[in-house]
Amino acid sequence: MSKRERCINVPQEFKIFQTSKGEFLKDGFNLVEGVHVSNLDGINEEYAIEEYENIFRITINVSAENIDSVFRELCARVRTPGFLMLEHGTNQNIEKQLRKSDTDPMHIDVFYLDGLESTAFFALYNQYNKLLVNDGVISFGFGSHICTDEVYVGPYKIFTIFTNETEKYIDVLKKYNIPQVHRVKTIWNNFSEESPGSRMTIKVNGIDIYEMIEQLSKKGLYLGERREE
Question: pLDDT (tens digit, 9 = 90+) per residue, 133-173?
Fold first, then answer.
């Protein structure tokens, strides 16, 4: 069972939290270096809230130039102690052992570093923030050990927050003029055979995400689970 399941145990069946639609930003929507998408029609900075039994999921589109600052301010509101979470696709050599046929699912490796107060988390994040933000393959987040409180940046840099304290996060989104909508249109909604997307690894300051994980393993990062994608 993952840390997210232990901490939050969020069912899949969320209901839409009804809101009025705000105005879109006018500066367009930008992607990070490691993400390539051919169709950004209708993709804007915006967020929506879904609720299930007093647990809320906030889905957020954040333009590339704002990812670092928005992530910092959201994570500053996570109740500590907490854990750093990193995710990437399982190594191809391991996949060959796990998958018996081409129809078998791919896998994700999930890493954790536990017991972090905010200062310790940000000390780690500051070392690798440019790589985390701009790499297309890594997903990352900061979650609470003590309650339902997690900020997660997933594939294609789509933000998801799991919480039962929405207002503290909404305050941050308002600061950045990110409007609330009924349902977020994400990059996933635009994918088709004619308009695909892709993600790739990059290097920042001479290291990639795999070297980053190796470095962090010396500070307590460990492989917590390997799950189906």
Answer: 999 999 999 999 999 999 999 999 999 999 999 999 999 99
Do residues 88 and 109 make contact, with C-beta atoms less than 8 angstroms apart? yes
**Reduced to 3 states, what is the DSSP secondary structure of residue 96?**
helix
pLDDT tens digit string along 58-88? 999 999 999 999 999 999 999 999 999 999 9
Written as one letter, the residue type at 114 is D
Rounded CA-CA distance 35/33 in Å is 6
Measured between alpha carbons, how far is 183 from 2 in angstroms, rounded to an integer? 27
The pTM score is 0.86
Q: What's at 96, amino acid-wise? A: K
| Separation between Cα atoms, residue 209 and residue 128, nearest integer Å | 9
Which parts of the chain are beta strand (E)? 15-16, 35-37, 46-52, 55-61, 82-89, 107-116, 139-144, 149-153, 159-163, 197-199, 222-228
Residue 27 identity (one-letter amino acid): D
Q: How far is Cα 199 from Cα 48, in angstroms, rounded to an integer?
A: 25
- How far, in Å, CA of 90 to CA of 109, rounded? 5
Q: Where are the domains of the chain?
A: 3-7+37-228
CB atoms within 10 A of CB 229: 10
106: tokens are 């791919």
Q: Roughly how many angstroms between the first and final C-alpha of the chain, as a whole number?
A: 15
Which pair of tokens denotes residue 77? 């509101």
d(C-alpha 34, C-alpha 151), whole Å: 21
